[in-house]
Amino acid sequence: MQRLKITGMTPPERSAASTLPIDTLEALRASVQAGLPRAIAELSDLVRIPSVSWDGFDATHVQASAERTAELLRDLDVFDTVMVDRAPGPDGVLGQPAVLARRAPVAGHPTVLLYAHHDVQPPGADSDWSSPPFEPTLRGDRLYARGVADDKAGVMAHVAAIRALVDTSGPPQLGLVVFIEGEEEFGSRSFGALLERHRELLAADVIVVADSDNWTVDTPSLTVGLRGNATFSLTVSTLEHASHSGMYGGAVPDAMLATIALLATLHDAEGSVAVAGLRSHEQEVPSIPEQRLRDEAGLLEGVTPIGRGELLHRLWSQPSITVTGIDAPSVQNASNTLAPSITVKISARVAPGQAAAEAFAAIEKHLRAHAPFGAHLAFGSIDLGEPFLVDASGWAVDEALAAMTYAWQAEPVLAGVGGSIPFIAQLAESFPDAQVLVTGVEDPHTRAHSPDESLHLGVFRRAILTEAVLLTRIQQHRVH
Questions:
Q1: pLDDT digits (tens, 9 = 90+) for 215-243
Q2: Where are the beta strands (DSSP E) in 204-294?
Q3: Whole domain around residue 311: which residue ranges?
Q4: Running DSSP on this structure, what letter comes out for residue 304?
């Protein structure tokens, strides 16, 4: 198997994974294949529920999605309890509904927690999609819809894998916990409260988070590094009120000018982050051709990548800062006016090894120090998520890599991810003895969060088989 050396994480020796009889493996493969049409149909029904968890969207859809997810889990007829619950976030506002289920283990067998989320990102403009965003549409070997991969396919991978386990092995001997969150796309604000309220129910020896991607559509990966995030709004003000640009332009600094000048200080001429105090994580990464980055990201002809160092080091191990939104007069409504205030949304990614609060403090200090023309700055909607490095030394990692090798018939890759899944750090803190495995159903062409999000059905089938084999392997282990 290909093993990426990640500083401080990969031990020099590893224990061998357990083995399964070939007839058991082939029975799992046949069961997953036979159940695939049902899994795709149930996934399609789930995707038709527009469960956007953001403020301003109909929360009844998120509730309906949770109820449908709970129904899928109850229909498995393996859980002692299945519930839908909501908890307040730090601001006291009740969060979106999560689905929780548990089956107690037979004495001596480990317990596995399976995580995914049923909420989705906003679809954006329908005109940006090739087909309606909440109507699953098959084109070639990909199913297109909002949430079809991120992360309702993760939900269905858990359901279908449990079906295959029961079909081939009978009632599970291992303990099973399922936690399907309802607001991951909105910052997991009530996640901590749910963990605290249901700590006993959620306790597990192994945690499988099905919310990441794969190296290619033919090569699986196990995610072992995730960047954190620091997102916030920034309002730049220079005037008490709007003024005529012809009468005062050239002498009076408008907020748009100040905002543009300030944002430009966040990066150097090569596009690398230029904020003192933001750190990178030193690790070895494989080289990839620039053309792969261009193809997957959709770089236009003549547009160059930004930053320095190996491409994957920039994506996995270096900080990044992106302006994701601007509240300003539209071109259609623009008048000859000096804008008094401009608000922007900034999304920073934090390299593994640095606390999100430390990173935000560095960015805030930089912005205040570089505010041009004495512009006034106001910060709001601060949302922090911690980066995470998976401990790859446990037996569960070996079992996962062995399961991937069989299911995909390809050597898996230990990979970092440029995106963030902040709640994993919370899970690890709540259950410090649990081994964490970050898997997924996405691939480099999934376009999660973007128009024309899609799921490769071959990846979906192999992800289900991977988890079914993994659960069967884990069932062979004993815990004290």
A1: 999 999 999 999 999 999 999 999 999 99
A2: 206-213, 221-226, 228-237, 243-244
A3: 228-291+306-385
A4: P
